[in-house]
């Protein structure tokens, strides 16, 4: 029994992108007659029509042809994955690593990863995208990203997950604020009548509102802004306080160089974590696992370096 070849799959994966044989043949770098013969051979193996070829050389995929093309793309992607990964007898990882990072987390994660990881694996092609959960999770599910680093807050259950470091919510204040002078952890009741500069992003906004609602409180939101650096800049000018997750290498200065004061928040302040996430059904290649392992080491080293006494 005849079997489909990799070339057959490449042809069928390309066909839905074109409306004429000439265009498809040009992209596949073969003649129109050779392409037509290949389609006939593929349909003979499949035992049903996969595309309709009209007299004017137009082509239209059948429902079976569309399904064939979808499966062919998946198989070709897996073959490309193999070719990017093997052989690596010399110990070198090869191929693309596409990772995403939650926006407010990105200044604390991306520089550390891009400084240290690519030099360890020079044959990898590392790229990064910054966004919110609403942007990063669909990109993971569509295959545009291999992994994303986000807060472990309100994540879909079907995602794979690896903890990078533990964290929890803390309060950021102007150093001259009366609450910054207290030696005890702050409570939400201390903050409820103070102007809150809300970091407006999914899932951060919902998490903050849940913290207040759990105590029957409603925060006094004076501004909602889409960037954490803007929250800090406004706090640095004494316009209100902010709530953000504790993190390593966190400079106690605003973008304008104004001092900030960070204070712990008393329970209920549910512990969370920064995690690497990926589609739960995905088998992560060695190069992506290497990035996750490096992130754990790099970020926990940053925690130790920023701890008091170091």
From TrEMBL:
Pfam families found in the cross-reference section: HTH_1 (PF00126), LysR_substrate (PF03466)
Keywords, ordered alphabetically: DNA-binding, Transcription, Transcription regulation
InterPro entries: LysR_HTH_N (IPR000847), LysR_subst-bd (IPR005119), WH-like_DNA-bd_sf (IPR036388), WH_DNA-bd_sf (IPR036390)
Keyword Cytoplasm: no
Domain HTH lysR-type: start-end pairs: 4-62
Gene3D superfamilies, per database record: Periplasmic binding protein-like II, Winged helix-like DNA-binding domain superfamily/Winged helix DNA-binding domain
Stated family: Belongs to the LysR transcriptional regulatory family.
Name of this protein: LysR family transcriptional regulator
Source organism per UniProt: Glutamicibacter ardleyensis
Upper lineage: Bacteria, Bacillati, Actinomycetota, Actinomycetes, Micrococcales
């Amino acid at each position: 029994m005849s079997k489909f070849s990799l070339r057959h799959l490449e042809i069928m994966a390309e066909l839905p992108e074109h409306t004429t044989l000439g265009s498809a043949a040009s992209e596949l770098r073969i003649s129109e007659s050779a392409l037509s013969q290949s389609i006939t051979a593929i349909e003979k193996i499949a035992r049903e029509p996969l595309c309709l070829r009209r007299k004017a050389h137009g082509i239209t995929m059948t429902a079976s042809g569309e399904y064939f093309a979808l499966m062919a793309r998946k198989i070709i992607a897996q073959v490309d994955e193999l070719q990017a990964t093997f052989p690596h007898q010399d110990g070198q990882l090869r191929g693309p690593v596409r990772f995403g990072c939650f926006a407010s987390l990105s200044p604390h994660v991306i520089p550390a990863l891009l400084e240290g990881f690519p030099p360890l694996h020079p044959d990898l092609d590392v790229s990064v995208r910054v966004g919110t959960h609403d942007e990063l999770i669909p990109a993971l599910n569509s295959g545009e990203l291999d992994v994303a680093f986000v807060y472990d807050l309100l994540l879909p259950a079907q995602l794979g997950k690896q903890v990078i470091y533990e964290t929890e919510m803390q309060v950021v204040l102007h150093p001259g604020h009366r609450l910054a002078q207290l030696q005890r952890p702050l409570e939400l009741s201390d903050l409820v009548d103070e102007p809150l500069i809300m970091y407006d992003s999914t899932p951060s906004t919902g998490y903050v509102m849940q913290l207040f609602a759990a105590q029957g409180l409603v925060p006094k939101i004076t501004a909602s802004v889409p960037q954490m650096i803007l929250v800090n800049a406004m706090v640095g000018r004494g316009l209100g306080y902010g709530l953000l997750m504790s993190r390593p290498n966190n400079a106690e200065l605003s973008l304008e160089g104004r001092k900030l004061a960070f204070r712990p928040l008393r329970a209920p302040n549910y512990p969370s974590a920064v995690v690497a996430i990926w589609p739960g059904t995905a088998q992560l290649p060695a190069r992506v696992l290497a990035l996750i392992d490096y992130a754990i080491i790099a970020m926990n080293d940053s925690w130790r370096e920023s701890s008091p006494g170091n």
